[in-house]
Amino acid sequence: MAGIGKLLLLYDPKHEKPLDLSCFGTNLVLFVLLKTQTLKKILLYSALFVSTLSISLLACKKGGSGTDGANKAKLQVYLTDDPGDYEKVFIDVRDVQINVSGDSVNGWQSLQGVNPGVYDLLTLVNDNDTLLADADIPSGRLEQMRLILGPDNFVKLQGDPTMIKLETPSAEQSGLKLNIHADVVNGILYVITLDFDVAKSIVKTGNKKYKLKPVIRTVLSAVGGSIKGFVRPDTFQTVVHAILGPDTVSTFTGTNGGYMIKGLPAGNYKLYYMPSNSTFRDSFRLNIPVVLNTVTTVDTMFLHQ
User: Fold this and answer.
1) 255 — alpha (psi -120 to 50), left (phi > 0) or beta?
2) Mean pLDDT for each consecutive 10-residue tract of the chain (305 residues)?
3) Are residues 80 and 198 in the same domain?
4) Do residue 218 and residue 154 come from a single domain?
5) pTM assigned to the model
6) Which whole-number Å values give the CA distances from 19 to 22, 30, 98, 113, in the listed order?
7) Which of 20, 48, 196, 300 is deepest in the core (most CB within 10 A)?
8) Domain boundary, last residue among 222, 240, 266
9) Is residue 110 part of a domain?
10) What gap in Å lies between CA 300 and CA 286, rounded to an integer?
11) Are 87 and 174 in the same domain?
């Protein structure tokens, strides 16, 4: 697909450090998937209800900012896996963290909206996945990401009812690090796929003794763009809807009348403007293009009474 960039990264504990993952000088509404197959299509945005204006919308989904550039990107983390020669493989995920400072010791921060738990990787095959985290991250420089594992990691062999505890080296418990080193610019949508290779990640060390040494392949792909603009007058808020087929992504204007709708799949959108001041009429624009890796700037919308 034109406009999409991809890069693979193999993390192997034998190398004691991750290989470098260089990526695009763009910012994210960033999706991250822990995955072991090809990149799947993902639902690109979550539901938004603009309660301050008491507007009910069908298929209304969040993807915007109330200001012209809030210096935030959106990051979603998914977990998925390839089949392995085991009946069950349970991984205890405690946290997902990012590093934007470059300080490999003190620069880590946990993502908000992390869903910790013990996940059976072998149920997450054939493009199945589960959401691990959904959070905004600052634009600027994204240096590294790491997955924090807890102690409750187990494997169940085929035809054997016994649950065998996976030994997890302390280095792995303190975080599986992946280098990213990407400039992230407000408003561009990405997907990161972390490919957990079960067959290579579980090492037999003795009679019914197994060690977890995760091998992770990473794919980064650009999959969307954004729309930004201004509405006048700016003395009241206006809801702005970006409509493509059955999907509507919405935001509202900030104090300067600016708006930005992030994480949109490519296509030609209709923009619908609904002012909170009832003396002004609703307005719309047609055929607003959204292109991968691009922020589309729309001419200022002047509302009329």
Assistant:
1) alpha
2) 35 40 38 42 31 31 51 70 80 90 87 90 75 79 86 91 88 75 73 76 89 77 82 96 93 91 88 97 96 90 97
3) yes
4) yes
5) 0.61
6) 10, 21, 17, 28
7) 196
8) 222
9) yes
10) 14
11) yes
